[in-house]
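Quick one before lunch.
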Amino acid sequence: MRSEIEIRRPETKQEFDKYYDLRWRILRKPWNQPKGSEKDEMDQTSIHIMAIKDDKVIGCGRGHFNSSVEAQIRYMAVDESFQGQGVGLRILKALEEILTENGAKEIILKAREKAVSLYEKQGYKIYKEGKILFGEIKHYWMREK
Ligand SMILES: CC(C)(COP(=O)(O)OP(=O)(O)OC[C@H]1O[C@@H](n2cnc3c(N)ncnc32)[C@H](O)[C@@H]1OP(=O)(O)O)[C@@H](O)C(=O)NCCC(=O)NCCS
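Model of the coenzyme A complex:
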C-alpha cells in the first residue's frame, strides 16, 4: 500500500537524527561541509517541521523568532527524489501557520537563488541581496509583503 507523506514536527530522537541528516545531506554535503555544520545554536528553541514517508524523513524546515513579532524560516530542504512535488510548499505553509499562531507578524527568510520562485508563489518578495554562500550560492532576503 502506498503511504502518504505526513507533515509534522519531529518528536523522537530518531526522528530528529533523520531530520538533521537530511538537512546536512541536501544543504551542506554537496559543498563538502562537515557533519555538525547543519546545526546552529537556535535549534534548541526553534520550531521544526519535517515531511515523513515510510519512516524516512524526506523534507525539513525550521522557524525561529528574531523578536516577539519577527520570525525567520531557515533550512528548507527536500530529498532530491521528492523535489518538485509540493512537499516544500507544504512544509513552508505548516511553518507559517505555527509561527503566526505564536505571534509572528512578519516572516522573513534568506532564499537560495533556485528557491526564490517557490517563496514568490507564497507571496514573498525580495527586499535585499544576501551574501554568497560556499563561494557560489547567491542568496536573497525575502519577506511577505
Ligand atoms: C527548494 C526546495 C526546498 C523546494 O521544495 P520542493 O518540494 O522541491 O518544492 P515544491 O514542489 O513545493 O514547489 C516547487 C516550486 O519550487 C521551485 N523550486 C525550487 N527548486 C526546485 C527544485 N529543485 N525542484 C522543483 N521545484 C523547485 C519551483 O518554483 C517550483 O514551482 P513549480 O512546481 O510550479 O515549478 C527543494 O527543491 C530543495 O530542497 N532544493 C535544494 C535545497 C535548497 O535549495 N533549499 C532552499 C534553501 S532556501
